[in-house]
Amino acid sequence: MLHLGEGVGRGVRWILILGAGLLMAAGFRLPPGAAAAGNIYYVSTSGKDAWPGTLAQPWRTIQHAANRLQPGDTVYVRQGTYHEQVKPVYSGTADADITYRVYTGEVATLDGTGFQPPAYDPDALSGLFEVDSLSYLRVSGLHIANAQWYTNTAGLLVQGSDVLHPSSYITIEGVSTYNTASSGIGIWFGDHVQVGDNRIEQAGNYRPSQAGYQECLTVSESQDFAVYGNTVLNCRKEGICAKQSHHGQVYGNRVWNTDAVGIYIDAEGTPGGDGGSDIAVFDNVVHDTATNGIALATETGGLLDDVRVYNNVSYHNQLVGVQLSNCCDFSGPIAHPLHNIVVINNTLYANGWTTSTSPWGGGISIDSPEVETATVRNNIVSQNYTFQIAVVPTPTLTIDYNLVDGNFGDPGEGATVGANPIIGSPLFYNAGGADFHLLPASPAIDAASPDLAPSADFDGRARPLDGNNDGTAAFDIGAYEMPYFSYHAYVPLCRR
Ligand SMILES: [Ca+2]
Ligand SMILES: [Ca+2]
């Protein structure tokens, strides 16, 4: 598996991928884990489980393959719809994954319609594709639909038994899920888990009158995880949630039209006990959620520590673009600490719209006096409804070098522009078309602080660049770093 460093921009990642291709072409081998030689098997809706599982004589059920696959083996699932639950039986090894993969160019659907589940505790986690306490597995390209039998039934579930006994080295890629009672993809007690380039739609659909449990894409009580390149839409809970988890990256995802927070990082711990830490949220686009675009919280106690939110675009959410939340004071004096939080170089636009008769919302809010050592820097907060930045002020809060545009809000309610603000329109290229690159005359160009600024922008372009052609490279405010172009050259490049 290729583990890419935090902050490696999209452009650099492509260079790495291209580089890997050149190395393979030249006869070099990639690091172990992905492609050790093993047996290849096939499953088809026209197959028979009594056959040998070859291309000409495929098996009939995916579970029949799951009962047999050994380290290094791959099963290709052929076109068609499969009404079964799949539970892999064996683990791969460090240099030989077991792979479940849809045959190239075909669509294979695991469909829970009419499937009678085994006897689960109705409140227990379950999944139409369910991985329990296994390692070195890869699932690629499967479509999973109509996983509906209990409130806690996910499309694809990966779980360990506890923190010390996780499912580990699991890769879920190119999977799509539709109409699941609980999460489309749920990871519980995972270690070294990669969830990339999947599509999750209509998650949390237990009943028309009742949403299911959990978030659309859930990572819980896990560590060393990466959630990247996923599309999450039209879901009834939070879009992407990492809770009580450590050492993770959430990047390059697109989330919209969710009934709760778009991207949610929650300690979800116990008072004085475990929480969440060392999580980076970057290069995501979140819009049109029914609450906040991106939110950090300590709902049930524990500490949320060392979270970095940068290069994100969060717009047209009903409440706030980025919120450090005081959620949730359920029962008396539980501490909800958030420490060492950096919110930097994000672009937050037109948040705070709602269909209610009393709209409220803004760009960035810090609602909790228990936030310690937080930095809000180099963000564009533009045309958000009630305020641009509003905070409960504390001595360890730093707010500076933000571009503030629109209704500043009520200082009596914590509204502030912070230190060294740039005041005025950011001059987006086309805000109505959700293109928040900057026009050449933007006051955000070369106006940011270098302190803690990310070394690449949303597009993977290296920062800083000399965007105003004065001979000195300096960081831009917001998610995008603009190169210097004369105007007539700039326009077509921006329309790529
Ligand atoms: Ca610049
Ligand atoms: Ca310059």
Q: How does the helix and strand content classify structurally?
A: mainly beta
What is the domain tally? 2
Tell me the helix content.
under 10%
User: How many angstroms separate the termini?
Assistant: 31 Å
Bound molecules: calcium ion
Count the E strands.
40
- What about the largest sheet? 13 strands, parallel
Coarse morphology: globular
Order of strands across the biggest sheet? 1-2-4-7-10-13-18-21-24-27-30-33-36
What is the alpha-carbon Rg in Å? 23 Å
Number of helices: 3
Average predicted local confidence, pLDDT:
90
Beta content comes to: 35-45%
Instruction: Pick out the low-confidence regions.
Output: 1-34, 492-496
Short description:
It is built from 3 helices and 40 strands.
Structure description:
With 496 residues, this protein is mainly beta. The chain has two domains: 33-237, 3 Solenoid (Pectate Lyase C-like), CATH 2.160.20; 265-496, no CATH class. It contains three helices and 40 strands. Strands 1-2-4-7-10-13-18-21-24-27-30-33-36 form a 13-stranded parallel sheet, with no helix packed on it. It has a 13-stranded parallel sheet with strand order 3-5-8-11-14-19-22-25-28-31-34-37-38, with no helix packed on it. The chain has a ten-stranded parallel sheet with strand order 6-9-12-17-20-23-26-29-32-35, with no helix packed on it. A hairpin with a 4-residue loop joins β39 and β40. The chain is globular, with a radius of gyration of 23 Å. The two termini are 31 Å apart. The structure holds calcium ion (2 copies). One calcium ion binds next to loops. Residues 446, 466, 468, 470, 472, 474 line the site of one calcium ion (CA).
